[in-house]
Structure formats: C-alpha cells, structure tokens
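So, can you check what follows?
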Amino acid sequence: MSSQCAAPCRSFHIRHKGRDVAVRGALERGKYVTCAGVEPGVVRVCMGPMFSGKSSWLGQHATRARHGPARASLLVMPTANDRDLAAGITTHDRVVVPMDTLRVPDLAAALQEAEPRLMLAEEVFVEEGQFLGGDLDWAAEQLALLGKNVYVTLLTTTFQRAVWDGTRAILAVADEVEMLSSVCQCGRAANFTSKLHGDRSGARIVETGGADKYAAHCRVCYLRHAGALPAAGDA
C-alpha cells in the first residue's frame, strides 16, 4: 500500500486488537469512516506553556500503554520541530522514551493518504500538535473512530498569547483535557510562555528552541517581560 495517494484512499488496513482489519471508505477531511467490530478509542489532550511537563505526561501514558495488552505504538512529531531528533518522546531534561517515530508536516494529510505506520498503530502519541496542521481535530477524531487511542500535547498559546488554530479546534473533540502549569522565576505558577531571544515581533511565530529562547512566566512576570507592566521597583 502506497503512502502517497493522488486522492483520498478508498480502502486500507488498520491494526485492531492485534489483528489486521480491512476498511472501506474514503479518508476525507470533514468526513468520517467507521468499521464494524472496531471499538472507538479516546482522544486525550494535554495543554500548557513551555516547560510544564507535557512531554513527561506523554511519556507516562506511553509507558502505561506498554504495560497493558500488546498494542503497537507510534509517536507523531511535526517536521517544524527540529529540537528533538531522537526516536522517541524527549523531555527538556533529555529523558527519552524510545518509540517508533513518524515526522510529518500535517497529520491530517498523512491520515488522508492512509500512511501505513499510522494505520497500523493502535496507540498514537502526538507531540507539539499545534504545529501539525489546521485539521488536527478531524485527524484525531478519525483515528479514534478507527479504534486508536490518541494522546496529544499542545502549547496553550503563542508567546504573544494568541491561541493556535489546532489548539482551539481539538478541544471540541477531546474526551479528556488536562491543563498543566510550570513554575515562574518568581515562584508563582507559570501559565504563559515568554520569548526571551530571537524575533519577538510576531513575524516568525514558529521558532523552535528551549530555555535558550523561551521561559514560562506567571501573569505579572509575563506582562513585565512584554513591557506592559513596569519592572519591580519602578513606578
């Protein structure tokens, strides 16, 4: 089966409870395909600022899945994220949970083409979902209808506190949503991401990096960093 289809694939195979299942129907954005005898999976979403433990959350679910009934797992990463090059879930502390990894620019496009590794996975772990295209909600829900459990991590907002399109859309189809926070430099809970270095004009929203470029801030420190509040000790 080719992963490159000129039009949406009309038939394909999935893995369900350890067996191959033939599915007929077109994988088209905005429309859905189900298969008799396939129990739908769930969509679990974890959101938060940078350094809030989203990758650790994903790794915990991946480890738990390994200890259950044998189900093939796949990590989906956006090609826009060139920070993590290891094959597996990687935290900012460089803890790696090894896993077969698929890098794509658009998850919905890979699903529409019935990408073989995606079709045969039963547990799908999606890292940095905000970079994986505007139809992330359709892709996650269709994967769940094909019997797959889908785990998605996303940044809550950009460093300018604009909500990512993918973040907004997937909330409507998620079975579970967990919000995480980090710890600000002042000790308060940090729910916002500030950009420390690089282009802060907003012209380049997607710019990968770690603590060298970004920090998690509380509301007060975020606004001070943005110049919207005077610094401590000033007026």
In short: The CA atoms of residues 55 and 91 lie 5 Å apart.
